[in-house]
Amino acid sequence: MFEAEWQKLKFDFDNLNSNFETHIDRRPNEQMCRLLILGEDHRYNIHPGVDPIAICRALWRTYFCRRPEGGSTIAMQLVRTISGRYEKTPTRKILEIVLAVRLTKHVDRERLPCLYLWVAYYGWRMNNFLQACDRLSIDPNSSSLEDAAQLVARLKYPEPRISNLERKRKIEVRCAYLANRYRNRGNRLRTELAGSDGTVQSTGATGKIN
Predict the structure, then answer these.
(1) pLDDT of residue 194
(2) Is residue 80 one of the residues assigned to a domain?
(3) 95: domain CATH number?
(4) Which of 36, 52, 83, 158 is most exposed, with minimal Cβ within 10 Å?
């Protein structure tokens, strides 16, 4: 089962990567990728595609504290988005973990956040990065920290079809949180990523899976 799912993921990933390569003028910038890591997966540079600490914390909060939490890494979220599988079952979660680890091993680590931002859901009529930038009037080539934070904040709190004050408040709070973390840790994160121990096999500029 795992091998068949892996082959399907490879095919879909390469199609995604080919589409990404045709848009060299409008891609998620480095600041957006760092905001994503700081907000969603801050141990990104030290885990193999799954974060055991985050998984254990999510299980504890979900089943003992009654505060549901996912614990998914960027690689796991990318696998889920590409595969289109969102069923809440142990089998699906295990498969997602296995595929995320394998994907992280075979693809340049620096490329995964960018590709996830490229295909992620940001809200109503914002089914990918380009749609989100158009609706939010964000130019990734000249965006401010606040612009980038507004975009990434909608991964946690997608824009609803009908806007409401409560969702606006959550987005603004999330935006402020991300911007503050970036100011405090953004440069440090860049150094950490540049100093990775090389356990991830780079596939070069194209990011295609071998």
Answers:
(1) 61
(2) yes
(3) 1.10.3810.10
(4) 52
